[in-house]
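Hey, sorry for the delay on this. The queue was backed up all week. Below are the sequences that define the complex (chains, strands and the ligand SMILES where applicable).
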Amino acid sequence: MNEAERSRCCRTSSPLTADGMGMVGRGLCICGGREPTPGKSPHPRSHWGWGPPLLCSSLSPPLPRKGHASLVQELKEVLRTPPGALVLAVGGGGLLAGVVAGLLEVGWQHVPIIAMETHGAHCFNAAITAGKLVTLPDITSVAKSLGAKTVAARALECMRVCEIHSEVVEDAEAVSAVQQFLDDERMLVEPACGAALAAIYSGLLGRLQAKGCLPPSLTSVVVIVCGGNNINNRELQALKTHLGQV
Ligand SMILES: Cc1ncc(COP(=O)(O)O)c(C=O)c1O
């Protein structure tokens, strides 16, 4: 098998993630850590386009950002009118930056964004509090997919462009949201996604409305639900046991 035929993933990608992408048994090439050197692709020799599966940092321009921005284009096609709020999870800030770019593209930059993180993977919230980029000493949250120690500068710049409410939930709230979403929608997602879902299930949206941070009546709320690779039933049960939820 030559180099171009090998699948690639990060050193910290879990076996579940690699397996979910059909990478196992295909000459998996483990290359790079989770956080790329600023300005450098973490996968310098990988190729874009059709080919073997590629796990890349959501901050590697330009493909992931275009993909994230296109979510908003699709939303506009479906909804026609802007939602009352948009909820998403923040890891290194790639999804947030892409969605903000998409909102600008379609003229929806007035839509408030609720940017969700879990405690222990809250580099965006920490940066906002400090007024500058900060590096978390460690990732202590179970939402490992949000495990960037430092948020991208671009994500912090988004604060100047859109109304962004940065919110942090506990792991237990994120995992409870995963279970509730599974029961409601029959879809199993990672705790990283549970962070976003917790905005709904924990009543956070209502609290933001009560505080006047969001309008009292919201026409619709969009939650970006992604991240189903790094979870299965056994993992969910283990997380619940770990958090004392069983
Ligand atoms: C479920 C989920 N939501 C959102 C994100 C956003 O991550 P980032 O801010 O690094 O783009 C991730 C990252 O892996 C994720 O797994």
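The chain has nine helices and six strands.

I'll add it to the shared folder too.

S.
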